[in-house]
Amino acid sequence: MANELGKAEDETAQKLILAGMELFGQYGFKGTTTRMIAEAADSNIGSIAYYFDNKTGLYHAIARHIARRMREVFGFTGEQSAASASDCDQALAQLELIVKRMVRQFAQAPEARRWLMLVMREQASPTEAFDILYEETFERVHVHLTRLIAVVMDRSPDERRVIIEAHTVMGQIVFFLVGRFPLLRRLGIEDEFPPDVVDTAEQVVISHLHALAFTTKG
């Protein structure tokens, strides 16, 4: 009985997180009420206080949920190190695997679309939730990519140029989600990226990574 009760509580909290994610993304923190979230989650309004203390607590729990899921789907579940990439070829091989995971997630997975609006709001106007997203995911991914790109470019990972190159690579990948509708329309595609388009997207980003190997110091 206790296990069944615990499972029910977990399911209720999860429904509140998913409902809140969609509503906060659509209406923002101020425009979303606890009543709206409770109704969308098919729960009573007191459940938010029970599980998360208040609306802010739920908002931060959603940020942690997104950060955790990003780490999982991108393969950043533990401490990442570029130390194993001792040369350009090894670094490029690791980067290619990361790019493929990220492109497929942003181009194809519906889950990423549920994250999108809330994450974009936090990028545009950061709150404490942005600190959660940054410290638990954004920084980890960015630092790891920067270290690998530094190996490829034979530069220090602390150089601004290398950090900006890593940021540019991430931006290219993320824009397959943020700019999906303009690209779909430009390609004359109705709803989803077909597999051959995703394959081409991977190849384009990977070709840009290989071009970094020819970037000279200076």
TrEMBL record:
<dbReference type="GO" id="GO:0003700">
    <property type="term" value="F:DNA-binding transcription factor activity"/>
</dbReference>
<keyword id="KW-0805">Transcription regulation</keyword>
<dbReference type="InterPro" id="IPR050109">
    <property type="entry name" value="HTH-type_TetR-like_transc_reg"/>
</dbReference>
<keyword id="KW-0238">DNA-binding</keyword>
<protein>
    <submittedName>
        <fullName>Transcriptional regulator, TetR family</fullName>
    </submittedName>
</protein>
<dbReference type="InterPro" id="IPR009057">
    <property type="entry name" value="Homeodomain-like_sf"/>
</dbReference>
<dbReference type="InterPro" id="IPR015292">
    <property type="entry name" value="Tscrpt_reg_YbiH_C"/>
</dbReference>
<keyword id="KW-0804">Transcription</keyword>
<feature type="DNA-binding region" description="H-T-H motif">
    <location>
        <begin position="33"/>
        <end position="52"/>
    </location>
</feature>
<dbReference type="GO" id="GO:0000976">
    <property type="term" value="F:transcription cis-regulatory region binding"/>
</dbReference>
<dbReference type="InterPro" id="IPR001647">
    <property type="entry name" value="HTH_TetR"/>
</dbReference>
<dbReference type="Pfam" id="PF09209">
    <property type="entry name" value="CecR_C"/>
</dbReference>
<feature type="domain" description="HTH tetR-type">
    <location>
        <begin position="10"/>
        <end position="70"/>
    </location>
</feature>
<dbReference type="InterPro" id="IPR036271">
    <property type="entry name" value="Tet_transcr_reg_TetR-rel_C_sf"/>
</dbReference>
<dbReference type="Pfam" id="PF00440">
    <property type="entry name" value="TetR_N"/>
</dbReference>
